[in-house]
Amino acid sequence: MQFREDINGLRAIAVIAVVLFHFNSSWMPGGFAGVDVFFVISGFLMTGIIFKGLEQENFSILRFYVARANRIIPALALLCIILLIFGWFFLSPTEYKALGKHAVSSVGFISNNIYWLESGYFDSSSHEKWLLHTWSLSVEWQFYIIYPILLVLSSKVLSLKMTKRILLLGTVIGFVFCVLVTYKWPNASYYLFPSRAWEMMIGGVAYLYPSRFGNKQNKVIEIIGVLFILGSYFFVTKETPWPGYLAIFPVLGSFLIIQANSKNSFITGNILFQKVGAWSYSIYLWHWPLVVAIAYFSLSKNFIYIGIISSVILGYLSNKYIEKIKFLNDFNTPISYLRSKPIIIAISTVSLGLIVYSTNGFFKLSPIEYQNLINSSTPSPYRNMCHISEYRAPEKSCEYFGSRITWATFGDSHSTEIAYAMALRLKEKNIGLKHFSFSGCKPSYKEPDSFSVCAKWYNESVSYILESKEIKNVIFNHRFTNMLFGGTAEHYPVVDEPTVTNEAIRLTKHMDELILKLAESKDNIYIFLPIPELNKNIFKLINNARKSNVSLHDITSTDINWYYERNKYIINHFNSAEFPSNVHFLNPADAFCNSEKCFAVRNGIPLYFDDNHPSVLGAIELVKLIE
């Protein structure tokens, strides 16, 4: 296709936003929408390639696939190989195994599905995934696989003219579908191809239905498009359901800039944007591992600027020496396409990742004490099945072991392992437990369904517990401080003073009402105060201790005073509030801390499976606090 400076400049507008957002989200709160801009560009270019081939009756699907592989795989595979080499020296076996898995899924272009199953894009654990950003490449590749096949079939069965109309209609339907699923299945809609397809298809519409306005009108269209994109960058945040209806702004903005087709535009045609646009793919590839490295090694904020500069330099080098390699694109027979060098590179990289993954990050080469700790830092075996992140009717909640269900646990993800540990304890008496937990759930009692993703579930579950004549004892627990005010132990030993908002006061008041209501009809209510948070993932702490030749029997993390200072609001509130005698407050610090420090590993027992959730063994220690 003829080179278009405006599209190259649009790439720069996209990658700059993504890079700034990832290094410091406060600079550009909606910078992640740059990925949506990339999708539109990709749809425009791919539609042009496919339709030109169909019009000239010489389009080859295999040749199209290999051309995409030549463009994408070499730089991506190099990044994966370098990270796998880096991981051998710096990562723990558990982390190295995860990297191997992610390298395989990235080069195999299924990483969006893997990350969807693992967690949300904006979760704190995202900064532990060196290849998280490759989810968007997987979405694009899935588009490249499906899109030409559908267009070829449609052009043969119908006509090119009708195919264009179907694409236009499909884009509208795709947008409506995206809006609906974003609110019903937010994590799935963010990562998966079906809810993103319309963004690439609208790029195809821009190619098939070009603007017929004059230069003056196109200048206005370009400016409107830029304003739409910049508006999404600065007024959308990671709290915004995405991609919902608001995704129309960066997508439509990209569509308008492409339609304007402005030549010699100062906005998209300036030399800086032209250079950054040319290097954009490689900048995108390299910037995220640098973001993760800053978090992983707990580097100071000054390294953000070094990371941004390094992203550009590495992007330039990758573009010059890797992306510009000319690989053979056309082969004589279908089987001969297997000689394509990028495909061979991809197979080799996947094989290396599989070796790392299948050996558990070469886990058995580590000391036996270390192996035992890692093997014991596990979540509940029922976590994936019983802990939910999307609505599930309360009556479908998991029940554990005993035939007489007289206990229930209720709360967010911190209650999941507590539920399992308590169920193990009750099993001896043939008493069962019903488990209610929703990921990242704010206390939402008496709040409308629109208040949070869990509000409907929350209130229905409370009603279920209250109405149940069998349930006599309830364990209630939340990550209270985090849910009310945010923040983690990431910046330890600094404690961010929470701003007590009207919402926090209201939610606290409603929690009190809920506790009192439960106490009226139940024998005992047990409330866990906040579980101490680690300043690093437990695997990092164990790995650091091993590398420093420190005893693995006891590994400390934060100070006990920091714990009380961080959770001062909720602890002071519960200490000062009046509750009946059947309401019992349990302090996890009694099990996880001494008079000075809180532990990650205590008496040889790993108390967590990440940086804030108790492991099964840790939860067993916690439920010992229940008389």
Distance between the termini: 73 Å
Low-confidence stretches: none
Spatial order of the strands forming the largest sheet: 1-3-2-4-5-7
Mean pLDDT: 93
Biggest β-sheet, characterized?
A: 6 strands, mixed
Pfam families: Acyl_transf_3, SGNH
GO cellular component, one term: membrane
Keywords: Acyltransferase, Membrane, Transferase, Transmembrane, Transmembrane helix
Protein name: Acyltransferase
Architecture overview:
The protein is of the alpha/beta class and 627 residues long. It folds into 2 domains: 5-358, no CATH class; 378-623, Rossmann fold. The protein is built from 27 helices and 9 strands. It has helices spanning 5-23, 34-55, 61-90, 93-107, 111-118, 135-157, 160-184, 186-191, 197-208, 215-235, 248-260, 266-269, 271-278, 280-296, 303-323, 341-358, 368-376, 383-386, 416-427, 455-467, 480-485, 502-521, 538-547, 560-566, 568-576, 589-592, 616-623; strands at 398-401, 404-411, 431-437, 473-477, 524-528, 555-559, 583-586, 597-602, 605-606. The chain has a 6-stranded mixed sheet, with helices on both faces. It has a 3-stranded antiparallel sheet with strand order 6-8-9. A hairpin with a 2-residue loop joins strand 8 (597-602) and strand 9 (605-606). Helix 1 (5-23) packs antiparallel against helix 2 (34-55), helix 3 runs antiparallel to helix 6 (135-157) and helix 14 (280-296) packs antiparallel against helix 15 (303-323). The protein is globular and about 80 Å long. The termini are far apart.
